[in-house]
Amino acid sequence: MRVRNKLLLAAGAGATAVALVAGLTGAAYAATLFSDDFNDGNSSGWSKSGGTWSVVTDGSGAFEQSDNGSERARQFAGDTGWTDYQVQARVKPLSYNGSGRVVALAARSNSATRMYRLALLNSGRAELQAVNGSSVTVIGGVGLSVSTGTWYTLRIETSGSTIRGFVNGSQIASGTNTLNGAGRIGLVTEFASARFDDVVVSDSGTTPPTSAPPTTGAPPTTGAPPTTGPPPGNANGLVGWATQNGGTNGGGNAGSTTVTSASALTSAISGTNAAVIRISGTISCSGMLRVGSNKTILGNSGATIAGCGFTLSGSRNVIIRNISFRGWDDDAINVETSSLNVWVDHNSFTDGYDGAVDIKRGSDFVTVSWNRIYGHDKSMLLGHSDDNASQDRGHLRVTYHHNWFDGSGTRHPRVRFGNPVHVYNNYYFNNEYGVASTMGAGVLVEGNYFEQCDEPTLVGYASSDDGAIVQRNNVFVSSGAPESGGGSVAGIPYSYSLDNASNVKSIVTAGAGAGRISV
């Protein structure tokens, strides 16, 4: 889906974009100025300068520059008046024609030859550069083995004269430069061919990670996990996919409203205005209550939703925390229809009809953390149908960490199409199966504790085609043999801290579920 916020695109003409300040993470929530995932099959909104460009299919839509004989091939989008912003895109070099060639993401371009760019060089470097015609000033860079056919996530952040560059979530360069104070974004190749996807421009960004830069573009298969990032025991610490795409802060600093009835709750969570809703006591209801964008829904001590659930359909920037759900008659939490940036944290789920947390229909950038599921069978579905590839491929990127699957039967999660899906530091107890990867999905399963789990990991499930699983550093107690393989798993773009798997049981049972944090 292509998204363009017309008000914010007009910012260069005098409209003002307002950033909401996150109370949970201390970061600024980024208002989206522009985004394009090319799934509509066209490149409207982009202007070409050289090269041979077309929208192609690479799992999902992507924008390809196919002529590696073109000296300078560029596409530009956005507003020449944009000043302080961040731009992020996935970039896949396809071929380089000669040495010292360039595939790059650009920011603050005020002409076809003046810009800042974050470049992947086939000389084994990633560099943040200030380009003024034929003059190239290197602001900073690192050695990086750039592999053709591999996706990299590039991000440039501009703030005044400070320019920062990130590769796969890790800062590789930062410096000051006064070449350009404003300008458009760009996609760039020089004597190279490449594909570009998931372009997002935000007016500000979350605090960037500062872990060491990557040493290879290859997907993870072995080796030690990252050791930097927010501490996993931090009750307010959002980690994972919901930190991407500008981050997630829900209602931010909006004043809170306390609700005690189904009618008041239904009204408070509707619409797109920023709001913080507090649930007090037990609310009995039925069906699905629709949650709009820019909402934080918090449970006061003992808060319970009995008989119904929440549905997010096309919603963005939603946080749901510290609530006990029981006896829902559909799903407890249903995230669908390209909902983006959702955090489901420290909730409890028991004795419902269908899924506890189901995510589907092209939704993306979701973190599910520190929840407990008990006395229930179907836990967490990711992707609802084998026949929904066109909407789901390139999306359904979800992080599941520090959840307690306490005697729950299946789907922890059951994954279709999403890649990479990240499952780490969860505690599994007395389950039919743990994680299933199907329909070409890619799942990294690491640092988990499986106890009395019949089939900890499955490559393929039921009639669904195989997906890929990389499993590493897990503990298996009185459990079956894990399966792995089935293809490749893409790299994880964000920083995170991995607990030792042998400690996960005690950590998770002490901290997962509603009533374990103060919000």
General description of the model:
With 519 residues, the chain is mainly beta. The chain has two domains: 32-203, Exo-inulinase, domain 1 (Jelly Rolls); 241-511, Single-stranded right-handed beta-helix, Pectin lyase-like (Pectate Lyase C-like), CATH 2.160.20.10. Helix content is 5%, strand content 45%. The strands form five sheets. Strands 20, 22, 24, 25, 27, 28, 30, 31, 33, 34, 36, 38 and 40 form a 13-stranded parallel β-sheet that branches. A ten-stranded parallel β-sheet has the order 18-19-21-23-26-29-32-35-37-39. Strands 3, 5, 6, 8, 13, 14, 15 and 17 form an eight-stranded antiparallel β-sheet that branches. The longest helix has 11 residues, at 501-511. It is globular, with a radius of gyration of 22 Å. It starts with 5 loop residues before the first helix and ends in an 8-residue tail after the last helix. The model is unreliable at 1-30 and 205-235 (pLDDT under 50).
